[in-house]
Amino acid sequence: MSYLDYTGTGILALAAAVPRRIIDNASYTEHFPAEDVAEIVEKIGVKQRRFADDSTCASDLCFAAAEKLIADMQVDRSEIDLLLFVSQTPDYRMPATSIILQHRLGLSDTTIAFDINIGCSGFLYGLSIAYALLQQKGLRKALVLDGETRSKVYSPKDRKTAFLFGDAGVAAFIGKGEKFGESFFSIHSDGSRADLIKINGGGYRNPSSPETLKEKVVDEYGNIRSDEHGYMNGGDVFNFLIREVPKDIKGLLEHAGVDLDSIGYYVFHQANSYMNGYLAKKLKLDLAKVPMCIEKYGNTSSVSIPLTMVSELQSELAGRNRLMLCGFGVGLSWATALLNVDGCHVSNIVEV
Questions:
Q1: Other beta carbons within 10 Å of 7
Q2: Residues noted as catalytic
Q3: Nearest by Cα to 187 from 78, 21, 338, 28
Q4: What ranges make up the beta strands (E) of 215-301?
Q5: H or E segment and range at residue 273
Q6: Does the predicted TM-score (pTM) go above 0.90?
Q7: Other beta carbons less than 10 A from residue 179's beta carbon
Q8: pLDDT classification of 73: cutoffs 50, 70, 90
């Protein structure tokens, strides 16, 4: 197994933006009986979510988060040499949304900018790439912008996904400093399980057509979606989680020469409360060290890890702390990171 090790790079600041519109899951009963909704909400642990309006994209949420971070930190925009946009809900098929954001944020045309389309583990993919590129002497600072509007991806008539996903955007400001010490990443992919979380229609393999947009009953439970809605095989995803993720976490800890008890917080992708609770139990973790924000924001895909850091660990990141981050899902892909934070500024969450 290969690992990625970096020295002297870390997160200087974090900011997050969420839509103003709050969805109360218990009242989300347009398509399902209230008693069914109550049972689903209890099982997945999502009480509220945020939905973007029709005119708001993931890039808008990231832009708001980045502007908040830049203002709070009084960042010199000319020092930002790298901008990464992590999302599976970009503005357009082309051009890359990162390049649109480079111009919108007033960054130099010498800025390296590109998109990363990877899903639930995407923040750690983006973070590892930013850390790697900042090992170069010529680069000074980086922005990792991670945003999703998953409310626009899943069918409200499919009970398997209708109550789970929400929208958010995060900006992470990355820089150099000896205080950050060593960081370690472990990154994996398994395309043999690509069908477990997927949107079949609307791409170039199966282009949009009246047929791909047509809603239809998809199973014996009466769930309804089109080929351009996302779907998920929850049971097989759970089996993947319990088989692969604990093994990856233990492997990275062994590689870094670190034990579980030395970690200040374990920040997992907010898949659902049951899965994260099971993962914590399997690893025998202190639940006080496993922050969760899924109850109030839902599953925000790749945004969920940094959103949890902003929402739940604002004061804890101001000092020195060691974090274990772990993302897993669509692809299938999964990634684990062990890193130090020291004096990380966390802005208050912005509503858009």
A1: 12
A2: 120, 269, 299
A3: 338
A4: 216-217, 224-225, 231-232, 265-268
A5: helix 273-282
A6: yes
A7: 12
A8: very high
